[in-house]
Each structure stands twice: as structure tokens, then as C-alpha cells.
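Encode chain A's predicted structure.
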Amino acid sequence: MTTLRVVLGDQLSATLSSLRDLAPGDVVLLAEVMDECTYVPHHKQKIALVLSAMRHFAHRLTARGITVDYVRLDAATNSQSLRGEVLRAATQHAASRIVVTEPGEFRVLQDINTWHLAAGCEVEIRWDDRFLCSIRQFRDWAADRKTLRMEFFYREMRRGHDLLMDEDAPCGGKWNYDAENRRRLPPGQKLPQRPLFPPDAITREVMALVAVRFPDNFGTLEGFSWPVDAASAEAALQDFLTHRLADFGDWQDAMTADAPFMFHSLISTSLNLGLLDPLEICQRAEEAYRSGAAPLNAVEGFIRQILGWREFIRGVYWLRMPDYARLNALGASRALPAFYWTAKTRMRCMAQAIGQTRDHAYAHHIQRLMVTGNFALLAGLDPAAVDEWYLAVYADAYEWVEMPNVRGMALFADGGVVGSKPYAASGAYINKMSDYCAGCAYDVKDSAGANACPFNALYWDFIARHEERFAGNTRMAMPLATMRKMAPAKLAGLRTRAASLLHALEQGETI
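Encoded structure for chain A:
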């Protein structure tokens, strides 16, 4: 009796639930297929990362004596779908059952739910216990709540996993040190080097394949240096804990020109592929605090991103799908401007964030939220188009983590499911948290002139056009009050400037 164990491309964990009770004769299937490479126009580095990591994982399984049916995508073959390869393998190996760990994306689960009919055998879908909160646990937590707020979920996760706790109280007496993590990077601050993982023979082979099969996809393969196996992922984590965690807290929201990585961990690609364990990451960060190697604001902020935000976002995704993918509470419909793909814009902050995304398939959370996301929110860009862009361009992007962050946090398209207010900001915020404005073609101090920072007029136009909708939101009371105190002529000038900018976008002009 042969069991076919299907491992998806983001499930590259030795402890994966579907691999736990392997028996002699079982076969593990990993398949590189065109559907997964093309359902959005992924960054070249994202495709190379996933395929290389899959091949490394398959080698690791084979070295343990496990039978692996590995389907390679190369110049001579054109495997189209995961479903097709599962049915082919089930027939070829005369599988009596199929075992798979629950997928991260709703569309894949829909497909898996039909495999038993097509394959004519039992399909067992196991809980993905690499996450610290199961989908069922999150549903139970959310069941009787009128609103879902990450902060309260995070506190329960801290208690449940005994992280940064002194008996029943949070370390330091506070749950959240976010207010201490918003410093602007001072001039001359020395930044650490990014750990480099030069491509080995497997990765170089994959990169050559991507160059041939996906020549027109966004981004470049030059400088590819992501961890592709458990050993390099561990090295990346240790490098962060040793060299950057201590300073991560103070400057985790800061931005500076031509320095994309700063003090950030750069482990999200490895974590989302399954090469690192989230609980172990949090425990080792806590050890750094307990030993005095890193301050509490840095460690708490880092753990909150993993134990709190990552788990919360996944819970929201599975709680609200498939309807969540259609939410557009603000009625945004404007097309995505071409500069999101070209980085050709006079706005230096946007050019920096998009340019480094093109070069590295990476930008940190504030660049994603308060630069590219903020512009999309203020300009009323279509959530579906923005969703697809974020999913396509980042090496760590999978729909379960991308969609709630984009539709919920960045665009407020979910009407407040994820965030209690829209994260809208004028150029003043970007100027406060970065040095981008100093070298920009626009004047961040000007709002309505021909050379005024676009974020300024777009911000007030956004507040004005959604005034009625935001009237009942207490967290929007201050900007609404400020707008209502403006002289009518000033507000009219701001809205005229915004209309000119939005018209330019619609005409495909560069701003």
C-alpha cells in the first residue's frame, strides 16, 4: 500500500506534518509547475528562490533514503499544474491514499479538495502545525468578537507560548514597545552588511532556467543571495541575532536612501518557505534579551512581527476567504501606474522603494506600508491590481500573508477588519522617517504648488473625499477636524492639485 506524500513549494520543513509517519514504500512528490510560476508575474528572484529551495529539499530527503518523485521544470518539459502531477504520480505509483499538509493559499485548497474524486483514493489534509495558531484556534478566538485587533491576539499568544513573560506579567511591564521603535536614522550611522549566500551549482542551474523561461518577468537575477536550504537559513538567522537585533528596535521603521536592508532580519523568505521554525526564532530572540545581548524594545518588536502579526494575518485570511479577496470598501478603481514596474518617477521615496524591490525582490515593512502602499491608498488604486503587484514583486510573498497586509493594512479595502483606521500619511511622515525628501525633485514643505510633494495634496484629497465614511471613526477625528478648519480656498487648492496628479496618472504620465 503506497502513500503519496505531496509537499508544496512553501512547505520545505523536515518536520512537516505530512512527512511524519513515512513508511517503506511511500513516495514524496515535489513538482515544479508552470501554473505556480505564472499565476502572477513573479519576480525572477522569487521563482529562482522557490525552485532552488525545492531542489535542495528534495536532495535532503533523498539523502535520508526517502523515495522522491521530483518533477523539474526545464527547457524541454512544460508541466502545467500541481493537480496534473498529483494525478500522474498517484497512478504511476498506484497510491492507495494521498497525504498533504494544508496549503497556505485558498485557491490551492479548493483544488486539493477535489483530488479524491479525480484520483479515486483517500486524500488526507493535515494541520500545518508549523504555525503557532491553528486555523481552528483563530476561529475560536475570533468567534465572539465584534472587532479583530492584533494587539489582543498577540497578548494571548505571548501567554500561551510563554514568551517575554515574567510569570503572569509581560517583561518590562508593557506588552508593546512600538512607541520606542520609531527613531529616524541619524546621519553617519554605520549600517551592518547583509549576509551573503552566493548561488551554488543547484541555484545557478535554476537561475539559468529562469533567465530562459521567464525573461520578461519583473526584476533582475543579479545579486541573488537568498538562503535556499535549512543550513543557510540558520546562518541568516544567527547573523541577525548576533549583528543586527540589538539595533533593530530603534530603527525598524526608518528608511534611508540606497540602504535597503539596514538592521532588518531578512529571514521572511526562509520562514515563509518553511526553512525556519517560528517558535524557535522567537525563543532565540528572547534568549538574546534575557542574556543582555539585545534590549527589550528590539526583541519585543521582532517577536511581535512573528508571534503576533504573522499569525494574526494568517488567521484573518482563512477566517474571511474567499470573500476577503473581493473587498473594496473605499471603492478604489484607478489603474496601477506604470512606475510601479519601472521605478521611473520623480518621487524619490517611490523610486527608492520600487527600485530596490526590482533589484532585490525586497523592501521592509514601512516601505511597503507607508510608501508604495500609502501612495496606492491615497491615489485610490484598484485593490486587485495592487494585490497582484505585491504578490508578484516580493520574494517572501504568498497570498495568505500578502492579501490581508495589502487589502487590510495598506489599502483599508476591508473596511477595518485588520486595522482600526486607514494608514494614510502626507509627505511629512516620509520626511520624518527617512532622508528621501532631501534629494527629491518635489518640495515636501509645499502642498498645492506645481512642485509640491504629491503625497501632500493626495492626502487631503483622500480625507476630503472619504469625509462622510470616516466621520464615525474616532481615530480619524484629528485629520477630519484639521481639514474642516482649513480655509475653503486652501482646501480647494489642495484638491485641484490632487485632481491634476490623478489625471496625470490616468493619462499614463510620469509624476
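The longest strand covers residues 95-101.
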